[in-house]
Amino acid sequence: MNEKVKQIQQEYREIRELSNYSIFDIESSLKSFAEKGFVWILKDLKDICEAEGILIEHYCDKFSSCQIYDSLEDSLSSKPSNESASTSPNQSSLNIVPVHKEKQPKHQQHLEVRDVKQFLGYKKAKELEEKIIELCKSFPSYEKKHVIDQIHRSAKSIKERIAIGEQMYIGEKFNQYSVSIGSAKETSAWLQISLGQKYITQEQYDDLDYLVNQVVSILTKTLCHLKDNHGKGINLPNPYTPNVKNFGAYENALLLVERIYEITRQREFWREKDILYGMRQCSTSCIANIAEAHQLYIPKKFRFFNDSLKALQGLDSLLETSLNKGIISEATLKEIEELRISIRNVLSSNMANISDQKVS
User: Fold this and answer.
1) What pLDDT digit, counting tens, does each position of 58-103 carry?
2) Fold (topology level) of 243-360
3) What distance in Å separates the CA atoms of residue 177 and residue 166, rounded to the nearest whole number?
4) Fold (CATH) for 107-241
């Protein structure tokens, strides 16, 4: 391998370590590499995660005209100007470092603290949690450590985050309500999974999903009021979130869950419980993270989409193991692969768009 290529790849590894592998800092560095013409070199790295690979491909396309494929040595040896000649010990010789925006003074708007138990959104969230706990008592015992625990956790998070959000600072209220909205959408996903497996009836689903939507609507209206009446001088996000059920990757992820449950009911899986539960966990984690990504803040959306991709990777590994053991057929693997690719493509496209919003 060309020594200069090795140097650039090593520089990137050091930057990644300095940023503690934070994908949000890494993407700023990748954009810097792209602008300087070197990002294509990172495509051959073996130790990058899928999110890094998506960003590298994205910046390779976006800055294709800037990429330097010849005379690398001349490009790297060009002297920096006097202004940038002095570098810190942590700064790379390529003068490519994670980009950190200067912190702007925060405007903190104080709000009157109210009794959260009198807030309608909290009351609805509490009612939802109580109904879900009661409903899950009839679920199959083998779902205790999976669907039951996860839907309990997400429903509990809706109420808890509303309670934490009842404080003096408007910015933190937006943050906590955003998490609550994400948890509500995740709860709705677990309810759809439960309906698909016939753990609940259509009537029970409709009742609980209606409660979920009520909580989201109340929180959204509250945040709109705060933004319009108390948000001057504060950089607050748009309180509105899209309906996750209209998101293409969500619909396909739901189909993926139903197919995985159908496959793992086969007799061949009875002696492979680790693979069985692992496949179910990965598929449901994929859709749960897609749902929870539909909240207010861009970095959180990116992180949950990335977690969904990780779940898909885990599912791929388990499917390959199942094929090698003769538990599933090539045809079954291909069918699941088509669904997985369709989900991955939508997520990858959205992550690239999010990246543009964050660094533009």
Assistant:
1) 778 778 877 776 555 555 554 444 433 334 434 444 555 444 444 4
2) de novo design (two linked rop proteins) (1.20.1440)
3) 9
4) de novo design (two linked rop proteins) (1.20.1440)
